[in-house]
Design goal:
By secondary structure, this protein is of the alpha+beta class. It has 2 domains: 84 residues, Glutaredoxin (3-Layer(aba) Sandwich), CATH 3.40.30.10; 99 residues, Glutathione S-transferase Yfyf (Class Pi), Chain A, domain 2. Helices cover 47% and strands 8% of the residues. The protein has 10 helices and 4 strands. The protein has a 4-stranded mixed beta sheet. 29% of the residues are buried. The structure holds glutathione. The site of glutathione (GSH) has 12 residues, from helix 1 and helix 3. InterPro entries: Glutathione-S-Trfase_C-like (IPR010987), Glutathione-S-Trfase_C_sf (IPR036282), Glutathione_S-Trfase (IPR040079), Glutathione_S-Trfase_N (IPR004045), GST_omega (IPR005442), GST_Omega/HSP26 (IPR050983), Thioredoxin-like_sf (IPR036249). Exhibits glutathione-dependent thiol transferase activity. Has high dehydroascorbate reductase activity and may contribute to the recycling of ascorbic acid. Participates in the biotransformation of inorganic arsenic and reduces monomethylarsonic acid (MMA). Belongs to the GST superfamily. Omega family.
Length: 239
């Protein structure tokens, strides 16, 4: 069984922050936190991961980030020694990319970056449908998901959305695709009519990517987590 640091709850102490090390507040099964973890892995940046129990949140985390959501990035500023914190998967991912020049993930061409950004913003159609299948209205959710996937099938003109190698957009879209395999019982089968062939090839290419493999959430644990989530009782620690 793979191990990961226990999710901290109310009543816990915030572990002391080390200088010269990025800290990511995370939850092992959160697709938004997975975005940030993918970017950190793709850029080969070492970081400390602190997991948060999202149904019994530590008081100290709510002080840092009032909505209490993950991911959040924290570090000690080299010059001022001030502690800095930013929330939100897209903002954290962009910050990490902009402040580390190796393997730049955002396109430098502003037009291309804007086109990618539109696809990332419209991705809420997919995430909303995903949660509708999980918890609200599976039938409608499956229809919505198939409809929203068409936009991405049409937009894909190369191996990756970023071209011949994955860019920021590919890592921002990926975590939900890793979870589609668990929607079978609710009636969703990815590419069941064969009309998403470009996306299916993208999934294969992403699965072979080093960062994706490194950050992959073990399927057996993800399945258990999603079963609890579906019933409104998510469990975070299985070891
Ligand atoms: N817009 C946020 C982002 O992109 O980072 C969404 C993050 C989010 O929804 N994270 C979930 C969370 O923290 C876990 S997957 N839920 C706890 C809560 O909303 O109280």
């Amino acid at each position: 069984m793979p191990s990961y640091p226990k999710h901290l709850s109310s009543g816990s102490e915030c572990p002391p922050l080390k200088e010269n090390q990025l800290r990511l507040y995370s939850m092992q099964f959160c697709p938004y936190a997975q975005r940030a973890r993918l970017v950190l892995a793709a850029k080969n940046i070492p970081y400390e991961e602190i997991n948060i129990n999202l149904v019994d949140k530590p008081e100290w985390y709510l002080k840092k980030n009032a909505p209490g959501q993950v991911p959040g990035l924290e570090w000690i500023d080299h010059d001022s020694k001030e502690t800095k914190f930013i929330p939100e998967s897209l903002i954290v991912s962009d910050y990490v990319d902009e402040t580390n020049s190796q393997n730049r993930l955002q396109p430098t061409d502003p037009y291309l970056k804007a086109k990618h950004r539109v696809l990332i913003d419209r991705y809420s159609g997919i995430t909303t449908a995903f949660y509708k299948i999980m918890r609200e209205d599976p039938k409608q959710g499956v229809e919505d998901l198939n409809e929203n996937l068409k936009i991405y099938e049409e937009a894909l003109t190369n191996t990756f959305f970023g071209g011949s190698k994955p860019a920021m957009i590919d890592y921002m879209l990926w975590p939900w695709f890793e979870r589609f395999q668990f929607l079978g019982e609710a009636g969703f089968e990815f590419n069941s009519d064969g009309k998403l062939s470009k996306l299916a090839a993208w999934v294969n290419a992403m699965e072979a990517n080093e960062a994706v493999q490194k950050i992959k959430v073990p399927a057996a644990l993800l399945k258990k987590f999603l079963e609890g989530y579906k019933q409104g009782k998510p469990q975070f620690d299985f070891q």
